[in-house]
Every structure is written in structure tokens, then in C-alpha cells.
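User: I'm putting together a teaching handout on how multi-component assemblies are represented. Below are the sequence lines for each component of a complex, exactly as they appear in our records. Could you produce the 3D structure of the whole assembly as C-alpha cells, so the students can see both representations side by side? Please keep the chain order the same as the input.
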Amino acid sequence: MEKKHLKRLDLIFKNEHDTEEILAKVLAKKNEEIINDLIISGLKGRGGAGYPTGLKWKLTAEEESDEKYVICNADEGEPGTFKDREILSAVPHKVLTGMAVCARVTGAKQGFIYLRGEYKFLVPELEKAIAAFHNLLATLNLDFSVSVFIGSGAYICGEESALFESMEGKRGEPRNKPPFPTQKGYKAKPTVINNVETLAHTYSIFKYGPEKFHDLGVKDSHGSKVFSVSGDTPIPGIYELEFGMTLQKFVDDFADGDAKAVQVGGASGFCVPRKRFEKTVIGYQGTLTGPSLPTGGSMMIFNSSRSMYNVLHNYLDFFVEESCGQCTPCRVGTQQLLLGIQAVKKGEKPSLYLDKLLSLAETMRVTAKCGLGQSVANSFSSIVENFREEMIY
Amino acid sequence: MKVNLTIDNIAVSVDEGSTILEAAKQVSIHIPTLCYHEDLCVAGNCRVCVVEQTGTNRLLPSCAMPVSEGMDIHTNSLKVRAARKQVVELLISEHNAECTRCYKNGKCELQELSSEYILGDNGFIDLIPFKKYTIDNFSPSIIKDDSKCIRCQRCVRTCTELQSISALTVAHKGKEMKISSFYDKPMYEVVCTNCGQCVNRCPTGALTEKIYIDQVWEAICAEDKHVVVQTAPAVRVALGEALGMEPGEIITGKLVSALRRLGFSAVLDTDFTADLTIIEEGNELLQRLTKVLKDGDTSVKLPMTTSCSPGWVKFIEHTFPEYLDNVSTAKSPQQMFGALAKTFYAEKLKIEPENIVSVSIMPCTAKKFEADRPEMQSSGYKDVDFVLTTRELALMIKQAGIDFLSLPDDEYDSIMGQSTGAGVIFGATGGVMEAALRTAYEVVTGREVPFKNLEVTPVRGMEEVKEATIKLENVLPKWDFLEGVELKTCVTHGLTNAKKVMEAVKSGEANYHFIEVMACPGGCLGGGGQPIPTNLQIRQKRTEAIYQEDRLKAIRKSHENPEVQKIYEEFLKEPLGAMSHELLHTHYTVRNRQ
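Assistant: Of course. Below is the structure of the complete assembly, with chains in the same order as your input.
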């Protein structure tokens, strides 16, 4: 059944029970060497934004502070993403290893896993893994401990500065940047905040060396990526693939033969229509709107039976509710986009009103305070521009 | 260290850490703002102030973005203009734009931005019909209309940072996000001091004072009513701002003139009862000192705190109820005036008190609540019938067609119109303390307070907490127990600072005899009822004006006020006497902390 054009990788989920060995090996290195390895590997943040991980650790290590923190962002809230849950269930020790090494490198003594409220069921197993890991750390004389912090279900708390606010007991609202988390993060102390998958990848780098990781992928997108595949596919699930594939190859492997669009990166990502499958590459290179697209891992496939108006409506419903409401472009802009496409559909506004909405989306991209409001334009514009007739008729 | 950048092609060098907004100001470039306020921390949430940096796709919020070396900023590019216009359009779409019926018409910051950017364009869909808004107008002081709220959170930051109350806070998210009170209860039911600092900082008509203008006009026009008006000290250094004058101009004479033209039967002065407050409160302090230091009476509490600021009084009732016995029992000048207007004044002028309508012009919204307190009816009637803010008075003056700027100066009526410099400085933080010291020191020692020109400078100024210790030496024989005593005083303003002081008192860390607290930053001159905008610079100008007014007064000590001396001879008999007790002193109520 399965057409296998794409190489399936098994770095993340492979479990060889060698944590102690790997950890001892990497901790024997100097901090500069570890940072250097990460930089050589080309690892970039797997939450979607793609910030170089080595640089993030380096900047935090360079800050002078009596307290620093390492936080694992497990507030996996992007619609269509479910890979972090699997990583935390299957290989929590890899994530914890990444955190511990990061702590040694940066000088942090305390770490947190910020766990999405809906993933509360993971806690008992996770706590067991943490307890075992603490025992291991004790034998290695590393002064570091990890605790789980459970979020309350707001999408915005996946945004790093809103996440800090949430942990500090405040409303989950993004902060102004600068200062950045590496300078002032949790409790205004230098903080490394990495996605679950990013931390798990560091384990592979420690184990196989930065060169091997760097060899995977293309150009600026190195290594593998865990994808959450959903929608009109006979084989939904979680897959680890090499960076640099074209969307056409992805669709050939995973779609049902009738794919008309793929939403890459969830509600805040881009919609790619069939005619662009061949030219679109999955990876970090190029600009965001160019032919290559980054992704936090969500790949939603839509076949020709789907109304793209309904798809967009659904995303906008989500944003209207999940905007924190703090900044004008996001709070009001999301409402206007939703009401706007409804009005066009009903004929209450002329189809030209879509152009005003496209310009609004662009304003949101350049004026919103955080990634949430800025990225609404990604799905909105790519769906409206590629499926304009479906918005009107 | 200096940072060099260009803004609209103009080179500018500013201190490291400055924002783009501050840098732009230096080269005469005005960047519009809404959520920004000089008194508050930066929020960066309205996005009106965005600017373009060459080479960066995203626009930067100029209020929140620190400058960096070599920045090339454009504040008026096509991209900026387009974005700014849409942000304003968005704000208007969620704002109940019934501008012609709004109290803030012509004074609304959103309206002003709209007049610059929205030139007859078709806007976005009006969101108001999709929401279910109700107006909270149950409070005697503050009206909250969510339909006009643009979520800039100035009020939230004001209530939290300046006042440590958090009566207003953000609730819900997304389209439901709103500024709410505890469990969304009406303002009068929650822990709110009615200080009106939020009202003073609201850019739109979402938070306003409750307006009593029509009731006052009705009273003025009623033939059988004798309408007396009193004016608080801080009004005379701020009213001009609402009528087209620069901050810091003293307009006392014009104020009196205008009130007379409005048709008030008698134009009298809260400063008179400010002087009276000093006599009562000063004597109360000396009485407390006597009981504690001489008689060893442990039931009497020190430190004594002032009681003039109704925001402070409600704050301590909610937050430190265990210290209510420390609050001076002397009523505020407004309420002393009200009680005397319908007793002493009525008798003197042979008018039935029920025919007297007592109006006060205050820099304050909490005074409206204070006048409504059930205990404030010691004349047998409501002592103060209506309280108007400085802003409401300015509106009445406009309604009456009075050309304020060209008005001649006029003098207060008598009786209850004469005042001293000590009464005037009640309007500034430290003023009550200074006035009290001018009198109390002289009572105890027989000599003037030992400061040049009677200016007790340690209690003046905008410092958060001011302390002054005055050693009492060579006292009069009656006060021999005070010989050598160091009188420890503390002055603070803004409830966040008041909270700090009270916590220090509670922990035993602070050991004062007398504390002056004003709920509003800068004291009454920075009150919630004052002209908008009010900020540090404007408060300083008003402060200078107040002290100038004091210097110009012939008499500058409360106990030398001839009308005050006379009222004791003819009516009150003695400070803290039976009559004073009945009319001029009050009690306090423990309030919930919800």
C-alpha cells in the first residue's frame, strides 16, 4: 500500500537505553565544545520559528546572573500538531538529557517542562522518568532538577514570553521584546526555552556527533524533523523525515491521491495548493513566503471534497478565541477577518472586500505584538489568494 | 552612553536605553500613541505608535523599542501610515463611536487620531452590535462603559502600579477580552477607592466620573434655593488647563468671577475649612501626644494619619481596617464646609438649611462618594449636595458662554470665604503636614516653625515617601512633656506608596507620630477629577503654582485666619469641643476586602 519515496528516519524514537553513557560522554566535554557542536550541527528550533539552538544556549551562557533556567516548551497547541506528546511519552530521557546538558552549559540549576493542560495524563509516567533521571544526575554530580508545570489550555502560552508570564502566575500575555528570554526570561532571569523535539534532537547530536546530524537535510535545514500528518490521508500519524523534501513527494507518500492543498505548520502556517506542490520544499531555507516552508511539524492534507472556506473559517474561529486580546491588530483583526469572510460569503460585502482583508492581514503581520497575531496572515492570505473563488461562491 | 540613530533622516543622539518614542521627541517628531502614558510602565499593546526600521520587515512599537546604534527609523513612511490607519480603524470598529453623545466628545484621544487618519473611508465591520455591553453607572463616582473601551489597559496599570488596588483588571481572552472588576461586579461593590486616577488616564469615554452638572444647574435656577459653592485648593491651579491655558497658571480670581456669573448665591472657599481642619486635626494630634506621652493612655493610637483624602480613607477601611483608630477623626475640609454651611452659615444668613444647596468643586472623584456617605449628614441634611470635578466645572463655564480667559479677577464672599496660605497648600502632597506644623509648632513653642519663610521644604516635592523630624525645644510650660521630643512625620502620596508606609508601620519598622497620605500622585493637584492630561510634568507645574499662591497670601498660618478665629468665638467655642465633635468629626467603617 504505502509508497515509500521518502526516507524514514529513526533517530528520535530509537531507544538504546544508553542515557548514562551519552550523558557522561557529553558532560566530559567543555561547555564551549558542546555549544560548538550544536552550532556545527545546524540544529534549529523545532517549534516552528527556527532559531539556532546553539546560539540560544551560547547567549544564555554568556549572560551573568545568579539564577538561570532551562524550560522545555511542551505546550503543544498548534492545531494539527501532536508529535511532542509522543516524544515525551516514548523518549522522555532524551528531552531530559538535553535539558541537563543545557543547564550545565548555561549555569542553570532548575528546569521546567511546561506541559500543555490537555496532556495532564502524561504526568505520572513523566514524573517517573524525571525521578529516575534525577537519580542518574546525582551519580554524575550535576546539580540540576526538573519539575513539571501544567498549563491551563491557552494557545498563547506556547509563545515563550507568555509562557513565562503564565509560570509566574500572571495572565498569559506576550511581553515586549527586547529583552529576549536569553536576557530576561522566567522571573526576569536568563532562560533557555526549547521545544520538546529540539531537546530530543540534541541527544542524537551528542550521540552521533554534529557532522552526522549536519549531513542530513539540505542547505540551511539540517537534520530530521518529526511530522504530525493528519487530514485526508490513509496513514495519519507521526513520522520522522529528512528535511528538504518537496511537498509533491510528501503528498505522493501520504495523501489519498486527491490532495488539493496541504496546510504546512498548522493554523499559523501556510496553505500550499496543488499547483505549488512540486516547487515547495519543506525546510528553513529562504524566506517564509518563498518556495520553502518551515513547520512546527503539522501537515494537514485536504482533498477536493473539502471547502477551503470552511478550513479558513475554522482557523479564524480558533484565532478569534485564542488571541490573548492584548494587542489591537490581533484582538480586533482576527474578529474582522472572520466576520469579513462571512460577510463576503453571504454577499453582504462585495468580493473586493477580500482585498481590504488581505491588507489587514498584512498589517497584522507587521504590527502584532507576538508570533500569534503576526502569523494569522500566513494561513489567511495563502488560503484567500489561492482559493479566492471558494471564499466568494 | 550615547546611541546615534536617524529618525526621518534627522540624526539624533540619545542615552542608551531610551525608546524610539523618546528619541523622536528630541527632534520634534510626534509619534501618536494610545496605550502609552508617562506615569505608567510601557505596555506596547495598542500598536498605534509603530514605526519602520530600514531593513526590518516588521514595524516596531516606538514606545517599547529601545534605540540601538545606527538605527534608521521612519515614522511617516507609506508602510507606517497604512498600518497606523488600519490599527486606528480596528480600534474604531470595536469602539461605540457615538461621539456626539459622549461626555468625552472633543477630548477623546481615539477621536483625535481618527480625525487625523480616517478621512471618510469605509471602515471595518462595526463590532458593537455583536457584543452585549451594559453600562455600570451605579457608583456615585465612576461610570464604566465597556462599549467605549479600547483595551489599552492604562486604567489597569494605573490601578495596579500607582494605587496597588487592582480594582480593574483584564479578564477573558480573544474577542471576549475585557477590562473587568472582581467577578465583574459593579464598581461600587468592589474594592475601589473611587480615586479616579483611571478616569484621568482613560483615553476614551470608557471610564468617566458621574456627572452632576444638570442637578447643579437646576439648583442654581430654582428661585427658592440658596446655592453655596466651595472650591478646593487644587482647582485654582488647574482649571485653566481645561479652558485653554497653560499648566501652572493661577486663576483663583477668574474662578471666583466665573462661579459668580454661573449664578451661585455665594462663592466660598474650601480653603477656609482647610484652615479649620488644621485647628481641629492639629489639636487632635496634640491631644493624642498628651494622652500617649504624658498620661500613658494605651487606648489612644499613634501614629495619627490625615483624613482629608477620601481615596485614602476608603483604602485604609478596606486594606488596613485594624488602623482605623489611627485615622484623624477630623472630617475633610469639604465635609466640614458642608456641615457648617447648613448650620453656622444658615444661622448667620438667616436662611432655612433645607433651602441651602451645597455644591463643591473638587479635583477629585472620590469626593462624590464621600459626600454620599451616610454619616455625612451632621447638619441634619446631606451636608454636601453635589460634587463637581474640575472638568465638570470647566464644562459648565463653557455652557454658560463665559469667556474665561478675559474674565476680571474677583474675591470670595464672606463668611467662610477667607483663607490662609496654609489652607492653599492642602492641594499639594505635603501641604497638610506643612500647614499642621506651622500651627502645631507655634502652639507648643510659641515660636514660628523653624524654616525660612515658613516653608517646610523636607515635606515638599514628588519624592515617594518624605520624612521630616522636628525637635521640640524650649516648649511652653503647658507642653513641658514634649520638651526634647523629636516629632517624627511622614508624607506620602499615591496608594502604592501609602501601602508601603502602612506596612512599615505595621511591621514596627517605621515609628512616626504623624503621617500625611494623599491617595493621588502629587496630592489633590494630581487628583482624578483634574483636567486631562495629568502627568508628572503637569503636576510639578501645578505644585509650583500652589506654593506661589501660598507665598502671595497675607496670612500663612491657619490659626491666624480671622474668620476661623471668629467661628470659634461665635459658634464652635473651642477646638475638639462639643460642637466640633458633632459637626466636624466623624468615624470610619471596616469594609470588605473582596
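A couple of points students might notice: Chain B is about 35% helix and 15% strand. Chain B has three domains: 2-76, 103-108+121-207, 211-594.
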